[in-house]
Amino acid sequence: MTPLAVSLHEIEPSHFERCVGMRDWLRAQGVLRVTLLVVPAPRLHPFDSVRPELADWLRGLAAGGDAIAQHGLRHLRSRRAEFAGLDPQSTAAALDTGLRLLRSAGLPPRGFVAPGY
Fold first, then answer.
1. Which residues, including other chains, have CB under 8 Å from residue 28's CB and lie 6 or more apart?
2. Which residues lie below 8 Å from residue 48, measured CB to CB, with a gap of 6+?
3. What's the pLDDT score for residue 31?
4. Cβ(35)–Cβ(111) below 8 Å
5. Could you say which residues of the chain have pLDDT below 70?
6. Fewest CB within 10 A of the end CB: N or C in the chain?
7. Are 95 and 112 in contact (CB under 8 A)?
8. In b/e form, how buried is each residue of 77-98, taking b as 16+ CB within 10 angstroms?
9. The pTM is what?
């Protein structure tokens, strides 16, 4: 079997059902482990307070071997990248906030993937 690296991007409350379907499909194709790129605070609301079942699902996947990675903080939907134009202190604060939110949801990330630039 050829090694394959797979990541699911933009995991957030509004994409929950679609992400479940994609993860199930990947498992059916034999992809046993995936990196899940979680947006900690889409639209400035902690993802686990909006959809607690999303956090439960992610904790189950992490327990089964999937990796959790922080995907920005709020992952803006605009032409401008989330971190573009931020000074170093603001960037660090956004990253720290996202890390804190993921940890408080019981999902310590094992990586970071910046939203597209």
1. none
2. 54, 55, 101, 104, 105
3. 92
4. yes
5. 1, 76-80, 116-117
6. N
7. yes
8. eeeeebbeeeeeeeeeebbeeb
9. 0.90
Question: How big is the chain, counted in residues?
Answer: 117
Query: What is the DSSP secondary-structure string of 52-89?
Result: HHHHHHHHHHHHTTPEEEE--SS---SSS-TTTT--HH
Token pair in block for residue 1: 């079997």
pLDDT for 4: 81
51 HSE (CA, 13 A, CB side): 18
C-alpha to C-alpha distance for 117 and 95, rounded to whole angstroms? 16
CB 107 within 8 A of CB 68: yes
As given in the structure block, the two tokens for residue 101 are 């939110």
Residue 81: partners with Cβ closer than 8 Å, 6 or more residues away: 114, 115, 116, 117
- Do the beta carbons of residue 86 and residue 53 sit within 8 Å? no
Instruction: Please tell me what DSSP assigns to residue 83.
Output: T
Rounded Cα distance between 111 and 30, Å, is: 23
